[in-house]
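*** Protein under study ***
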Amino acid sequence: MNEIRTIMAAEADAVFSLVQETIQKIYPRFYSPDEVLFFRQLHNKEAIARDILAGAVYGLFWRNRLVGTGTCQGRHIARLFIAPDLQGQGIGSKLLEYLEGEIARTEDCALLDASKPAELFYHRRGYLIVRQEQWPLESGDTLVWNVMEKKLGQS
């Protein structure tokens, strides 16, 4: 049975493992080694624990296994990751829809920073690019990503 719920502090290691595994297995197809390292450092244990303590991290569980996680604070969705072996099975869509529902309680749109592997996924779910951001890496390269937005309303 699928269950989506707020992640508890004791589950921080499970979230961290899922996020890091997904970055390790998926991101090298889209990003340079320096960029992959940036994402691994960005989504560190401390950042995840801080968001969990704020009550902002959600998990989708299937047969008692954490198979997806996402964070939402205000109107911003972040750190949406699905177990690599289960991608393409609707888990991400279900979790994203849940997060949008949480945001829709107080906001009229959702905003997110789209990674290259997820940009098409978000576009297919109604997100549009509103701007481009960039971050200088220690290597001298620049990481570039798109910020996407979706208007939330009654269907």
Strands lie at 2-6, 57-62, 65-73, 76-82, 109-114, 128-136, 142-151. The longest strand covers residues 142-151. Helices lie at 12-26, 33-42, 45-53, 91-104, 119-124.
